[in-house]
Design a protein that fits this description.
The protein is built from 4 helices and 5 strands; from the N terminus they run αββαβαββα. Helices cover 27% and strands 24% of the residues. Strand 3, helix 3 and strand 4 form a beta-alpha-beta unit. The chain binds tetrahydrodeoxyuridine. The site of tetrahydrodeoxyuridine (THU) has 13 residues, from helix 2.
């Protein structure tokens, strides 16, 4: 049930995606260990490099409100034809996940509430960089 709700939240967030340059909408729903959900969409920019991915939008929203304990994230996308495909997180987003999430953090890629795949962060970003402190 928690899984279905997280996927639905991710799909709901697609409406806010700002992707006029790529036409590729992405939305993420981040589940905290306290069972709250933070959503985020991709936000593009005419200068391209200031663009932000959906996953980082969700994580930064949560961290900026004091949350740092995360359990899972669901990522969905929609192309210009309205199709949904599996959308693995980019390398930068994986590194941001590694900053705040433990190796068992779950990454769900969904095409629909019935069709999804899930991975662990430790498998998508092995040997990740971190400072010892
Ligand atoms: N994008 C994301 O939002 N998340 C990813 O992990 C991969 C790429 C966005 C960035 C850009 O707005 C669009 O998808 C096409 O690259």
């Amino acid at each position: 049930m928690e899984m279905k709700q997280l996927i639905e939240k991710a799909f709901d967030g697609l409406q806010y995606s700002y992707a006029p340059y790529s036409g590729f909408k992405v939305s993420a729903a981040l589940l905290t260990k306290e069972k709250e959900i933070y959503t985020g969409c991709n936000i593009e920019n005419a200068a391209y490099s200031p663009s932000n991915c959906a996953e980082r939008t969700a994580i930064f929203k949560a961290v900026s409100e004091g949350r740092r304990r995360f359990q899972a994230i669901c990522i969905v996308n929609e192309d210009v034809d309205g199709n949904h495909d599996f959308c693995p997180p980019c390398g930068v987003c994986r590194q941001v996940m590694a900053e705040f999430c433990d190796p068992e953090f779950v990454i769900i890629l969904a095409k629909s509430t019935e069709e999804y795949k899930s991975y662990l962060l430790k498998d998508l970003l092995p040997q990740s960089f971190a400072l010892k402190n």
